[in-house]
Specification:
Layout: H1 2-16, H2 19-28, H3 34-60, H4 72-98, H5 109-112, H6 119-131, H7 136-148, H8 154-168, H9 170-181, H10 183-223
Helix pairs in contact: 1-7, 1-8, 2-9, 2-10, 3-6, 3-7, 3-8, 3-9, 4-7, 4-10, 7-8, 9-10
Length: about 220
């Protein structure tokens, strides 16, 4: 279990570094129902992780207790997944770096509708945001394959999965907790954080793609 958590920690931290969902969460904290909308957004965001994680553990998990060694086939699959995601990340980083950014481009129209978003739509928005998150999902899936092939038993696999999901969604938990503790003071702090994230979104995303692209590629090649 200790070795597994050591593998999951960098992947979870990388998956948590996703500026866009954090920005949306901060924007929801300035709506008419700030905590409700942000919390429901978090639930929707987490629901995708829970569904995929439980499916992986129950369907692909061995359910063993550490008495057997992983087969050559499972090791090859693990390595292949990491190599594929590593190459994908590096390609996305190169694409983002080469793509010119228009500083005068207006924000998407849907961002203006967030101020009047309903609770139901906030939940749906969370589902969509994670379902289309090409920064966090590959790292999450890479972590899942470590859990399901760790041969630590179902109970410990679920425990590791829970910790992993909490680590991934910490980017949303932090602004929600900050606002809940001090709604009046949190406004300026979260507003400054939102401006910084919007300004550095591209740089942060490229950084994550490059660092974890290399990490996954090296890990995958060493496994094969």
């Amino acid at each position: 279990m200790t070795g597994l958590l050591g593998l999951l920690l960098p992947l979870g931290l990388g998956a948590a570094i996703s500026p866009f969902p954090t920005t949306i969460c901060i924007m929801l904290l300035s709506t008419r129902k700030p905590l409700m909308n942000a919390f429901v957004f978090l639930i929707g965001y987490s629901a995708v992780l829970v569904a995929v994680g439980v499916l992986a553990v129950t369907v692909f998990g061995s359910g063993g207790g550490g008495d057997t060694e992983p087969s050559d086939r499972s090791v090859a699959i693990k390595g292949t997944i990491d190599v594929v995601f590593g190459v994908l990340f590096l390609m996305l980083a190169l694409k983002m770096w080469l793509k010119a950014v228009d500083p005068n481009a207006p924000p998407p129209g849907w961002m203006a509708a967030i101020s009047s978003i309903s609770t139901g739509k906030a939940f749906l928005f969370g589902l969509i945001m994670m379902g289309t998150n090409f920064t966090s999902l590959p790292l999450y899936i890479s972590g899942l394959k470590e859990i399901v092939t760790a041969n630590i038993g179902t109970a410990q696999s679920i425990f590791a999965l829970t910790l992993f999901i909490l680590l991934v969604v910490v980017e949303l938990l932090v602004p929600i907790v900050v606002y809940a503790l001090s709604p009046h003071r949190a406004g300026a702090l979260l507003g400054a954080a939102r401006q910084w994230l919007e300004k550095n979104n591209r740089v942060i995303t490229i950084f994550v793609f490059v660092i974890f692209g290399i990490l996954l590629l090296v890990r995958g090649i060493s496994t094969l």
